[in-house]
Protein 1
Amino acid sequence: EYQAALQIASEHAVTSDGTAIEVAANIGSLADAKKAVELGAEGVGLLRTEFLYLDRITAPTEDEQTEIYTDILQAMGPDRPVIIRTLDVGGDKPLAYLPLPAEENPFLGERGIRVGINRPSILRTQIRALLRSAKAGKLRVMLPMIGSLDEFRAVKKLMDDESANLNTSVELGIMIEVPSAALMAQELAREAAFFSIGTNDLTQYTLAMDRGHPRMASRIDGLHPAVLRMIAMTCKGAAAEQRWTGVCGGLASDLDAIPLLLGLGVNELSVSVPTLPLVKAKVRQLDITRCRKLASEALNREDGAQVRALLKQWQEQE
Ligand code: PEP
Ligand code: MG
């Protein structure tokens, strides 16, 4: 029975009306990659590279990084795309080998790609390692916390330089997790190869609520219409430039939210490894036209609770 379930999990996730939705995995290690393949991942939608080095007190070298990226690409095989995100530290994510100065507002300070832009040698080392591992599989590189075109362009330039040095190239995409990026989606889509929405941070920054704050926990809701409008705007901006949009934040692993995400125009879902088979099964039940109707209704609700009520009601009549 387990084997039969794995067989179903390994088949593609296509909606009832024939729309293919890529269901990929969020991973943080080589072991996760192997487990993801077993559970039917069609790729990796997010490798959090900071997770590879949490126990380090010295920075990983270019060779060390090349080796682990190569191993992960090989584990995923030649046909599954693997999105590797550059180091995302700062805010709630400390890294022993990269101590950052204390700040008044760490979530609004040096965080994500800003750390790399301010320390180009660390970013350059990682980008070189990524480029050197590219031939081992189907690599895509993704930047966290992009908030403006000039941040994207600064990193793109660094990457173009190293691509020329190493005589190779890979697609460069960005996370959409800051409201300014969602608002500028179409302009960013002209230059970035793809988008993946980080709903954890996008919710935090849209609602101005700390994602880890115990007294905000019940109110920080990725289904708030304000967040949904950010997602809709992102998908629209991407589609206008023939780019695809994924979601790699926690909302993609929320089975109730999936019809809504597809209705908003999301093309790829990157989810926690254990939920892969459930997410694929969910996608197969859905009809995109109906999902779009649901999404347009949800965008006009007043708060997250109303959206949840709508989803529940929709579920019951399906
Ligand atoms: C997110 O913000 O939704 C995301 C996927 O990135 P992280 O959780 O690693 O900040
Ligand atoms: Mg994030």
Protein 2
Amino acid sequence: MRLLVTGGAGFIGANFVHQSIADHPNVTVTVLDSLTYAGNRASLDTVADKIDFVHGDIADMDLVDELVSGVDAVVHFAAESHNDNSIADPWPFVQTNIVGTFSLLQAVRRHDVRYHHVSTDEVYGDLELDDPDRFTESTPYNPSSPYSATKASSDMLVRAWTRSFGVRATLSNCSNNYGPYQHVEKFIPRQITNLIDGVRPKLYGEGRNVRDWIHVDDHNRAVWAILERGRIGQTYLIGADGELDNRTVVEQILEAFGRDKSDFDFVTDRPGHDMRYAIDSSLLRNELGWTPQFGDFGAGLAATVQWYRDNEQWWRPKKDATEQAYVAQGESAV
Ligand code: NAD
Ligand code: DAU
């Protein structure tokens, strides 16, 4: 199978490329990535001689058309992905997440190429802490941030192109990923690299917000299961029953560094901050037989801490600018 992977120099996309090369030897991979601040060629260094890398924009319709005409399937990861950035400046989110997805859909429609759309549980809005229900494939869309609104828009385009034009698409909406190669702007790598630098972790609000953590390799195994065996037109929710509040996660990171579990600071909360995400992944498990292999979040987190300790050359160049951006966005201790 010839695969076009968009956003393959980003966190989940790079891990997907690594997994594809390791577990699917009959697959050839072309990566299309515009190398925004979030993209990093170095994330693909160990597979550089096994893939084709194209430096370009998913909204460049001529380029996308040419690349799509030469593959059997597209797996679409490329996005502006960070909520805080979407509040500071929403425009790149509209351009990449909506217009970029449109560009890909038109090309797969023209060339009748199989398409898998990678999306987020944030399209469903948030849950109360004591809500007994979790998100399912039939939960109504109710996005809160510019990021999640543009992802929701892109999902709707995919559904419309499937129904109106017969595009052979599947969709997946996954919960919060952790693991190697995640940008230091995101919660877990930010706190790990702060601690390596001797800086106290920073918790938004009261640290009570809950995220449903899944290891990036489990997410990507689910994407492969859907690509190979998913029903056309179907959405699958991906989650590993990993609900934890942010304070508990910070305490576990502090523990991994041998620090007191109260060694963190509360900082300005995110405007419109979603309280809780929680995924019911029964459909994926029952229909496609997927189960997460990283059952123990503590062990996965410890391995992730070790990865950031061992790979400072990968994250160090991005660290100062990331922290300066948080200050520029008005973050301060409360
Ligand atoms: P990321 O920000 O780490 O990587 C995004 C990649 O897309 C980068 O390499 C960037 O250079 C590239 N990119 C951005 N704009 C582009 C454009 N216009 N053209 C080409 N390439 C472009 O993101 P991530 O965390 O790896 O997320 C990947 C996908 O998974 C996104 O669609 C995101 O919505 C979705 N998702 C992420 C999570 C998570 O926890 N990180 C959870 C569920 C779903
Ligand atoms: O749910 C899936 C989504 O998970 C993906 O669609 C997004 O692309 C991905 O970025 C992630 O979104 P979140 O906003 O949940 O992730 P983030 O890492 O930004 O924050 C996780 C939680 O931690 C959230 O409640 C905000 C909080 N937080 C974040 C940072 C950066 C802090 O308390 N302190 C921090 O310094």
Protein 3
Amino acid sequence: MKRPFRIAVTGAAGSISNSLLFRLAAGEVFGTDQPIILQLIERSEAMEALRGLAMELEDCAFPLLHAVRLHDNPEDGFRNVHFAFLIGAKPRGPGMERADLLAANAEIFSRQGRALNDHANPDVKVLVVGNPANTNALIASRNAPDLSPSQFTAMSRLDHNRAKGMIANRTGFNTADIRKVAVWGNHSASQFPDVRNAEAMGEPIWPGLDHDWVDNTFIPRVQKRGAEIIDARGQSSAASAAQGAIDHMRDWYMGTPEGDFVSMCIVSDGSYGIAKGIVFSFPVRCRYGRYQIVQGLPIDDAAQKRLDATEKELLEEKDAVKHLLPAETEDAHNN
Ligand code: NAI
């Protein structure tokens, strides 16, 4: 029997976690022979709801789930964890400006970064889902000076999956046949979903696509899909966000399929001219628990404009929280 992985999930009583936790316990991320211990973290106000969720997990009698621990603080919750899903975040309240939202979350994620630094396993892999995810990941990473920045990632996999789904619908292929979709930049409406290198059953799809449709329908639809879902169901994406989190962590840990790549928000090493140090979504390949940016993809003028716009937004977000960013350490981009 393998030794259990310790997995922390913050915001564990929330909607995304409700979809995620049962699938984690069923072995969908780390394999069906890998036992796990769940270390669930919530605000003290939500501990009662979390206790209810823990009872349900127990009632599933998952063979891989060795223990469930409940915590109302990140210092205890992150103790010895190998993987951390940072899902809990402060939502935007009425009348709240973007800067207020950034500042409120900066406090949460700087404390969580310090707690990971001091208490987690030194090889911990961190996925930030809570919004604004890229900048939250940046803050957590910068508050964890003993960990490599490459251990901190944020989620653009939901955007990646959305792009793949829309392209499959458009071309009539199955999603399993579509490869090499990429999402660049921020997990926000400025992101750049890119299908210029995409393939269906190994053949390039770009020559057969209507480029007006790509520019005027596909790209804005992926960018605004989150808002479209909120309008339709009155709540933000939950099950599909959990799916994105599962896919992100599974591929990081298990590796990406041969001949494909995925999108992950990671600390920029300057590839494609993107400012070093911001957390930016790149196409990556994963192997042996590490990721590498896919190099050499062609960037034409139109694509460059889109990269510039999303990079600018991330630099502005970084500027808005600069007082919470401790001095930058040398970029250790060797995850
Ligand atoms: P939710 O409101 O259902 O749950 C959030 C939970 O986090 C709540 O139970 C709350 O008590 C908890 N929480 C808040 N602050 C916390 C803290 N400091 N420590 C521990 N727990 C804390 O929200 P939902 O739907 O689960 O979404 C969570 C986050 O994920 C939101 O920020 C949302 O915007 C973001 N999101 C990100 C996506 C992405 O693609 N990156 C996609 C969809 C949502």
